[in-house]
Structure formats: structure tokens, C-alpha cells
Amino acid sequence: MFFSLIAIAAVIALFVIVSRQQNRIALVERELGVLRRLVQSGASLSAPKAADATQEGLPEEAKAAAAPAARSANGAAEEIAAKPEAAEEAAAAGPWTKAQAAAAQSAGPSEPAQPVSATETPGAEPPAPAKAARQSDVETALGTRWAVWVGGIALALGGLFLIRYTIEAGIFGPGVRLTMAGILGLVLIGGAEFIRRTGFKVPVQGAAGAYIPAILTGAGAFILFGTVYAAHGIYGFIGPATAFLLLGAVGVATIGASLLHGLALAGIGLVGAMVTPALVASQAPNPWALFVYLAIVLAATAAIARIRDWRALVAAAFAGTGIWTILYMVDAPDVNLAAVLFISLATLAVLAFVWLGLFLVTGRDDAARGFDWPSIVPGFFIALSALGLSVDPAFASAGDALHGAVLLAALVAVALCRPRALPLVFAAGIATVLIYLGIIPPATIAANALDIGLDAQPLASSDTLTFRIGIALGLIFLAAGFWAARRFAATASPRAACWAAWGVIAPLTVLTALWLTFGDIDRDLGYALPALLLVLAFAAGGEWIARAEEPPLTGGPAVSFALGGAGFAGLSMLHMAFGSGWTTVLLGAAAVVPALATRWRSYPVLGWVAVGAAVAVLARVAFDPTIVGAAFLSRAPVFNWLLPGYGVPALAFGFAAWQLARTTNGRPRLAMEAASALFALLTIAMLVRHAMHGGVIDTGTVTLAEQAIYTLIALGAGAMLVAIDMRSPSSVLRYGSMAAGVISAGLIAVQHFVVLNPLLTDESTGTIPVFNLLFLAYLLPAIAAGALALYVRDKRPRWYAAMLALIASLLAFAYATLSVRRLFKGEFIALWSGLGQLETYTYSALWLVIGVALLTAGVWLKSQVLRIGSAVLIAVAVLKVFLFDMSELEGVLRALSFIGLGAVLIGIGLFYQRLLTRGARKG
Fold first, then answer.
1. Is 334 helix (H, G, I), strand (E, B) or coil?
2. What single-letter DSSP state applies at residue 522?
């Protein structure tokens, strides 16, 4: 059925070819029309370039065959351009007919064709250009491309169907049938070569994709593949070795023929060559035969792809080889590791000396700044092979992890000598990181940290060989990375940065993994010394790279990676060498080192290294706020590990910020200022909590006194951030200061007024008359909030200052009210102790006095918020007098309550009247 459909399609295509023979005449007509328009516009004719453009993508033989036609067209164009009078007459004559165009094409130099008006030929009408173009495009597709491709497929399937028919009919024996099929394939290939050698040319634009010799060669190769496979797999006429050799020879020969016939044929040959090992079955497969064969196919494909610059072809060849390697490693019961190592190294050799070798010869490799994307494919598969050899216990336990290390080192070496193969160093680096992260015992780190109860095992073998390989790989990455970074620092900064990054990441990962696997996590001087050596190597390497920059010592990305790695190695060294307390202190002090280095080098990364130290200290205190552990923290107030643990970093960060402000400045300086302020506040807060909880800071509920100190710290932090922002404006500081104020207001509203309010908790307010809990929890925060509101009036939005002023007013009101309550009730002032008449009257008088005070302050400070607050408070007092005092008070207290209220209200009215009168007089 399928063959019938193909036959019908071929018949239709041939019918279209016969019925549309005028398409070539229409094409010539369009080309002459283009030449005519060029002559009219006075543009220079570039027929050779146009001819080259039309032949782009054709095989060499097709270009050679089409060259006479191009020269003929070029000569006609020059002839038209040399006779401007003829061109002018042609322009005045109007459109040409097809017959006139044919006559013009056949006219000789002595008899230039003269265009004739369309009216001189009865019945001739000028065709519509757009319609003609659409018709000719469809005709070209049907007649030159689709017919050829369908015909090629039909020939290939026809040969196979012929063999099938002879089998079903029993006409010939198996040997005769296979011989006939082989002869048919050879005849097709020979016919293709005959057509190519006898001057085949493609004169029609758009027909390059249907180059007939290539189609016939592909059909012949397809038939030969099927014939050899049938001789081996179906009839058993030839053995596995012979079938393997014949199929490989057909595949390689087809790839070689693509030099003459184009990329499509190369793809057919590559597919046939890659599936050959799967088609040939053997009782005892030989991995060396497989991988030597793949190496030959890969080398031949890469050479042809390099000549024609077929990147997709070489990428497919690398992918096929890599897939076969992985399949062999996964499925083979007894893997020959030497064979795996051979094919991997052969792949890298083909990449370096065949595919990328031309760049080295022409000298374009060093100047090129990009990378070769086909290199991603071999990098991925070889790194995957190295990962399997190093991680799989079947390989690693037997000491074969060494093969994986050899492959990783080979990837780095090829990337080093072929700069365009930059993806290889990424592949090697990622594989190395995964291998050495896999040796860390998850049972002692991840599982215990997460309390997940897994009896986990390391993903990779952690033995002496892995230890030694890790050291070797770390040194390889370090040396190669920094050497290549210096080499490209002046000409290709991104490439230098990539090399420097892997020169830092791989050694640090290996060292960390070995320390966590073999060393003591708490303290291990044996690993602190290598970490110190890495610090010195990274710092010296960064300076070495910086001296090769253009201009020198600018501190580009490669230098930033090197010095950033030095900072990380230094932090690791401190953790490995010292206990928890000294580690925190020294981490904070370490921020001074890169800040001081800015006196001699203005590298931008130095400030960020200092910021990194601050982040490390913050993470450490978040993990263990006691600095040395709760069991080892002294109960002595102030003079314990909290003071240096928080205070030394605060001082060090402040000094680093001061130093950066005088050298590099910028965002790192602002971050260090904020870190210094934060740790200064944390120092006070932690010492307060330590003192108020008897030397224990991680247990116990928060009291009102403790919360009051935290509130004062938050308000102070907001003020400090505002002050820093005024000196060095920053959106981070601006919004951070407002966040501190908003958080303070929220803490006051929730903790001071509700959760920890002594009216509700009955907490002791102390025995001292003035300096008691109320003074600390309400009056001092009121003063701080009011001062901050005054300070930010012209520096922050109005709503922010108004919020702080309102909070200050409420705190002052609460302090005064609760102080009256304490005056009558003593140390404990809970609500359930009741109210006396004199106490009730005192509240009314007090609120009126506070309202008048707020009104006065609002007028003096020109604060509408305070004036509104006074009005609200006086309104509350009025309601209390009329609704509460009238029923609860008796005798003189009731009378005094109303008299006082009336006097205050009249006084307020008189005050406002005079104020408005004075304003009217000034107006």
C-alpha cells in the first residue's frame, strides 16, 4: 500500500513537470526584469555576487556545473550595461512578453534584442508579477524538490520491495536476491556519479535542496545497508566480523561521499554507521572492536565536518559515540575500563586535533572570544563517564576511580590547549564537585541535621585513593584555572573569569568535602593548614592575574573570583583551627583585612569580601546566639563571651566601614555601617537578656522590662540608620530605618499595651517610687519615640513622623495613668484590685492636664498630630466625667470634677479664640 502511494505521488509529480515546462521561461523572465530595473536605477550590476548567492549551499559539483550559466548571465548583464541607449529604449518599451524575453536571451552581442510593445503582439497580456511568482514557487517546489525527494525514497524502497517480492514468489534464491539488491545499490551510486561528472547543474533557484546525485547516492547507500544486514542477520551468509566491517565501510564511505553531495548524505551515513553495532549480533562482543570502530567513524566525520563547517554533524557524531559509551558501561556485565578510557580519550583527541585543530593552524583560536557549542556534547558524556567511574561502587571500590580522575584531567587539558572548548572545563568542574560532595556521609550530616532517621551511605567511595585523587584534582584546577585566567585577562575577560571561578570552586569543594569526611568538624589543624595555603595561593593568584589585565590592576571578574575564594578559604580556615567562641570573634575581626587592603588596591571585590565576613558572623550567631554554647556561657553579667562575641564584630565592622569610606566607598561601606550598628544593638540586647535571665539567654519568657529594652534598641537603630542615610543616601537605609520604626510601633502596640501590660499581668512594677518598671517600659520609650519623631520630621514621610508622635503620646499617657494607679495601689496594679473615688477623680484631672499640655506642645511645635491628640484626650475626659464620674463620685469630688472640666474647656476656648484673632490680625 505504501509503495502504491509513493508511485502515485511520483506520477503526479512527473505530470506536473511535463505540464509546467514554462516555469523556466518565467524564471528567466524574472531575472531579466531584475537586470532591467537595476539598469534603470543606475545601480552597479554585481552578477558574480548574485550568482554566488544563488549557489550558496550547493555542493561543489553543482556550483561547478552552474558556473557556465552564471558566466553567460554575467556577460548578458555587462552587455546591457554597456549600451545605455538600449537600456533606455527597453525602459520606455514597457513589459516584455515571454517570447521577447526568450529572443533577448538568444540575441548575440552584435544584435541586441529590442523590446516590443505588448500591443504589437495580438492577444499578449503582461502577466501579474505577484501571481507569476507564486505560481513559479509552487512549480519549482513540485518539479525540482518534491519530485526528486519522492523519487529517491521510491528508489530505495523499491529495491527493498523487489527483494521482498522475490522472497514471497520464490523466484530466486537468497544469494541471487541479495546480489541483485547489492547491484541495484551500486548502480544507483554509479548513476549518481555519472550524472555529477557529466555536467549536472541546477539552473532553477531553490532546487539546491534536491540535488539529484546526492539523492541517488543516499538511496544506494540505504539499499547497501539493508543488503549487508540481511546477509548477516536474516540468512547468516556472513559472520559478525565481516558484517561489521562491511556496514562500517558503507557508513564511512557514505560520510566521505557527503563532501561531494552535501550534509543530508553525511547524516544518512552517520546514522547508518552508528546503528551498525546494534544491527550486528555477536556471542562474544569485543569492546575494543566497537570502540576502535567508533573512533574511526568519529574521526572521519569530524574531519569532513571541519572541512565543511558542519557543526550539527560533528555534534551528532559526538553524541552517538557518547551514548554507545554510556550504554556499554551500564549494560556490560564485565566492563573493560581500558576500552572506556580509550574511547573517551580518543573523543577528546578528535575534538582537539581534528575538529578544533584548524583554529590552531589559522591562529584564530586565541583571538576568538566565543566558545564552540559542539564541545558541549563530548564534555557532557565524558564527564558523565568520569562521574560513573568515580561514584559507582562497582568501579570505585576496585580502585578504578583513577580512570575517572584521568578523564577529568584530560577535559581540563583539552580546554586549556583549545580555548574554544571552554564547555569542557565546566563539565569537568561540575563532575568534580558532584563526586566530592557525594563522599560526604549523609548519615552524619544531612540525616542527623534534619532528624529524618535515614541509614544513609555516602554516594561515593571515601578511601585513601579518593583522598589522593581529590588533592591532585584540586591542584590541577588551581594551576590550570589561574594560568588560563592570566592568559585571557587582557583579551577575553569573561573567559578568564570562567577559568578563575573553577580554579577556586573545585579546590574549595574538594577541601571541604575531605574535611567533612575524614577530619574533625569541630577543630582540625590538619585541614586548617591546607586552607591557609589556599588563602595565600588565591590571594597571590589574584594579584598575578590583575597584573596581566589591560589596564593593569583594575580588579576585573577573574580577580574578583580569586580574592573571593581567598576570603571563603580564610573563613573556613578560622573555623577549622579554632573553637566556636574564637571563631566568631576572629570572623568578625577578619572583615578588617580586606578593608585595609583597599589602601593599596582599589579592587571592588575587597569591600564585598568584608561584607561576606559580616554575613558569615551573622549566620554563625543566628545558629548559636550563645557564641560558645549554652553549657559553656558564663553567668557573670557583662563580662562573658557575649561581649567579645558581639562587641568585637561591631567594632571591626565599624572600622571596616570607616576605612572603606576613605578608599573604595560604595555599597559595601554602607553594608558594613549597617552591620556595625546591628551588632552594636545586638551586643546590648544580648547582655540585657543574659543579665535579666540569670545568665541564660535561650530560655525563659520575655518580661516587660526586657521588652522595653528591645524597644529602645529598635528605636535607636531607626535613628542611627536615618543618620547614616543622611550622610550617604541609600534606599536600603531609607526603608530600613522606616522598617525599624514601624517594627518598634508594632512591638509597643502589642507588647507594651496588651500582652505585657501590668494592668493585665499584675507584674511587679518595683518598689522604687520613680525609677521603676513604668519608667523603663513607658516613659523612656515615649521620650525616644518623640525624639525620633522630631528628628525625622523633615527627613522622612509625614505619616512616619506622625506615627512616631502618636506612639510617643500614647506611651506618655500610659505612663502618667499607670503612675497614678501605682500611687494608689502600690507595687501591683492589676485591674481586679478595684478603683477608689479619689483615684477616679485624679484620672479625670490628669487627663485634662495632659490634654492641655499636648495642645500647648502642638501649638509650639506646629504639630497638627499633637493638637488632634489633645482634642481626643480631652474628649475622652469629658465622656469620663459625664458618664463615669457622675455616677461613681459623690460630694465635693463630683463637684470638683465638673468644675475642673468646665474651667479647662473654657480656657481652651479662650486660647483658640485669641489664637485665631492673632492670626487674623497678622493676615
1. coil
2. S
416 vs 215, 366, 485, CA distance in Å? 42, 11, 10
Listed in sequence order, the DSSP H helices in 548-694 are: 557-577, 580-590, 592-597, 604-623, 642-661, 667-692
| Dist. CA 610–CA 563, nearest whole Å | 11
Distances (CA, A) of 665 to 204, 559, 565, 678, 736: 68, 19, 22, 20, 20
d(CA 394, CA 767): 77
Q: Identify the burial level of 766 via C-beta atoms within 10 angstroms of its C-beta, where 0-12 means exposed, 13-18 middle and 19 or more buried.
A: middle
Q: Would you give the end-to-end CA distance of the chain in angstroms?
A: 106
CA–CA distance, 759 with 364 (Å, rounded to integer): 84
> Rounded to two decimals, what is the model's pTM?
0.65
Coil, strand or helix at 636: coil
Element counts in the chain: helices (H) and strands (E): 41, 0
Please, which residues have CB within 8 angstroms of residue 581's CB and are 6 or more apart in sequence? 627, 628, 632, 641, 644, 645
Residue type, 453: G
Cα 672 to Cα 400, 431, 612: the distances in Å are 50, 37, 10
Residues in Cβ contact with 855 at an 8 Å cutoff, skipping those fewer than 6 apart: 866, 867, 870, 871, 908, 911
Q: Does residue 389 contact residue 407 with C-beta atoms inside 8 Å?
A: yes
Tell which residue, 199, 112, 143, 117, has the closest CA to residue 24: 143
Please provide the DSSP assignment of 657-668 as one string: HHHHHTTT-SHH
What are the phi and psi torsion angles at 915 (to 5°)? Answer: -65, -45
Amino acid at 80: I
Amino acid at the residue 433: V
Cell of 405: 580522575
- pLDDT of residue 486 exceeding 60, the answer is yes
Please, are residues 45 and 31 in contact by the beta-carbon 8 Å criterion?
A: no
Task: Compute, in degrees rounded to 10, the torsion defined by CA atoms 143, 146, 151, 157.
Answer: -170
Q: Please state, in angstroms and rounded to a whole number, the distance separating the CA atoms of residues 435 and 429.
A: 10
Residues 476, 463: Cα–Cα separation, whole Å: 20
* Enclosing H/E stretch for 192: helix 174-197
- Which residue in 647, 802, 784 sits closest to 712, CA to CA? 784
Name the pLDDT band for 153 (thresholds 50, 70, 90).
low
Which of 882, 870, 849, 865 lies closest to 912, judged by CA?
A: 870
Q: What confidence tier does 894 reach under pLDDT thresholds 50, 70, 90?
A: low
What are the CA-CA distances from residue 496 to residues 371, 541, 605 (Å)? 13, 12, 16
Q: How far apart are CA 278 and CA 271, in angstroms?
A: 11
Place of cell 513589459: 95
Range name among 244-248, 485-489, 603-607, 852-856 with the lowest pLDDT average = 244-248
Residues 6+ apart with CB under 8 A from 701: none
Residue position matching grid coordinates 550524472? 195
Q: What pLDDT, in 10s, does the model give residues 131-141? A: 444 444 544 44
Residue position matching grid coordinates 505612663: 815
- Provide mean pLDDT across the span 227-253: 64
Radius of gyration of the chain (CA): 45
- 660 with 672: CB under 8 angstroms? yes
For residues 741 and 803, the answer to whether their CB atoms sit within 8 Å is yes
Condensed to tens digits (0 to 9), the pLDDT of residues 767-785 reads 887 778 898 899 999 999 9
CB 753 within 8 A of CB 723: no
Question: Beta-carbon neighbour count of residue 33 at 10 Å?
Answer: 14
Burial annotation 39-48 (CB, 10 A radius, 16+ → b, else e): beeeeebebe
Here the cell at position 638 is 557583662
Q: b/e for 137-171, b at 16 or more Cβ within 10 A?
A: eebbbbbbbbbbbbbbbbbbbbbbeebeebeeeee
